[in-house]
Design brief:
This protein is of the alpha+beta class. Helices cover 14% and strands 32% of the residues. The longest helix has 8 residues, at 176-183.
Amino acid sequence: MCGRFVASTPVSALAQIFDVEASDADLGEVDLRPSWNVAPTSRIVGIRDVEGSRRIDAFVWGLMPAWRRSAGASSPLINARAESVTEKPSFRNLVPGHRCVVPMTGYYEWLTTKEAKRKIPYFISRRDGVPLAVAGLWDQGDADSGGYPRACVITVAANPGLAEIHDRMPAVLEGETLAAWLEGDTAEAVSVLAPLRDGVLGAVEVSTKVNTVRNNDPSNIEAVSGQLPDSLFD
């Protein structure tokens, strides 16, 4: 799954990277502070296609379908599995026309082993430093989201290079797959939800301080060592 991520790229830079047509006023409305520990229910930046043009907006991370609200659920749906996204009632009606991309500097994943006796966090990002473009779905906002539309991210099976940390990873898009997700028809969009090829992403072990949301600064993504037994990957 993807339960925490880093969003440290200025929104103006994101607009250029992802070819978004936006005025300074538009960018100002969604310019959020950099965060090195984005957690569910946080406001995040998302990109969606509106009448053939890419638009950048602020969202709240986590969908809250009507059935969950009526059942008294308090935790939003932050992830959707690609394998069932067109089948699950919470997501299937959003796939045809409510697709988005969630830009991330990188994301955290936790390795759980009997040897380590605790969860060890890793920061995973592109080796070339370009922000990740993660497939997502969005829905209308509500009173609890402050009127901001809500969004979740889509996950796929992890590629071999990351599978030893966790068996899932975000559905990272690039080039033609990004365009297909935002602008293609439903069948074309769903077809690009696949693990990113090995070698594009790199993972570094980081401090367990990221486990606490209030710890939010650039040191969160600095590599550390000594938290795992030496023999773990022998």
